[in-house]
Design brief:
The chain has 228 residues and is α+β, with helices and mostly antiparallel strands. It is built from five helices and nine strands, in the order ββααββαββββααβ.
């Protein structure tokens, strides 16, 4: 039910001449806009008469503010480190408590995995899939073992409920790579390199498991390797 100047108006489906009122919608819209504009003008006149200072801010201020925000964003981007590609290397398919998980190492090009990191990641993956849950799962997923500069991050991702990805994260310090512990609640980010792996796995799941005649087992054949 349209409203004109704050009043609800019930309109018939057709006018007296038999034409559909939807054909006259532009006129009605102009009428409503016009009534609204007059109402705003009346309020401004009343406020001016009462001695209030009227400020017509309009689009100029909003555009100026948008410009300031863009300038601030450019200054912020100047502080961001330039992107450097990292190497994604397959570690094979891990069997863990009945699950099959594609495993990957993510590191700087030429970097070797820290001692004990991969073994610790495999153990954490086994612990994760062994936990009871309420989700419908398919026994497949992937593990990212990301060797960073200050710390390492391992994520164990499993496909569930047709189109969802369960995500568990563990971290360890660079000095003690095998001491993987669950990430704290405020460590809920995914870096650009991990996102590249997740994007690849998403496409593999959609095309090989969710398509016609989909087979989660065929999903395991799609493997990412190279720089991202």
């Amino acid at each position: 039910m349209p409203a004109v100047a704050g009043i609800a108006v019930a309109l018939p489906q057709r006018s007296a001449d038999g034409a559909r009122l939807s054909d006259k919608a532009p006129f009605l819209q102009v009428l409503v806009r016009g009534r609204g504009s007059r109402a705003r003008a009346d309020r401004s006149r009343r406020r001016a008469a009462a001695g209030e200072k009227i400020s017509h801010r309009g689009d100029f201020v909003s555009k100026r503010r948008r410009g300031v925000r863009r300038a601030d964003l450019r200054a912020t981007c100047a502080m961001i480190e330039p992107y450097e590609r990292r190497q994604v290397r397959p570690l094979g398919v891990w069997d863990a408590d009945g699950w099959r998980l594609k495993a990957y190492l993510i590191a700087r090009p030429g970097g070797a995995p820290a001692a004990g990191l991969v073994a610790a990641a495999r153990e954490r993956a086994r612990e994760v899939v062994a936990l009871p849950g309420r989700h419908e799962t398919y026994g497949v997923g992937f593990v990212g073992v990301h060797q960073g500069r200050g710390y390492n991050q391992v994520f164990v991702d499993r496909w569930a409920n047709h189109n969802e990805l369960l995500h568990d994260v563990f971290i360890s310090d660079a000095e003690t790579p095998d001491d993987l512990r669950r990430a704290p609640r405020d460590h809920n980010s995914v870096c650009v390199w991990d996102l590249a792996l997740q994007a690849f796995e998403r496409e593999a799941w959609v095309s090989r498991a969710m398509g016609p005649g989909g087979d989660p087992g065929a999903y395991l054949d799609a493997v990412l390797e190279g720089e991202v």
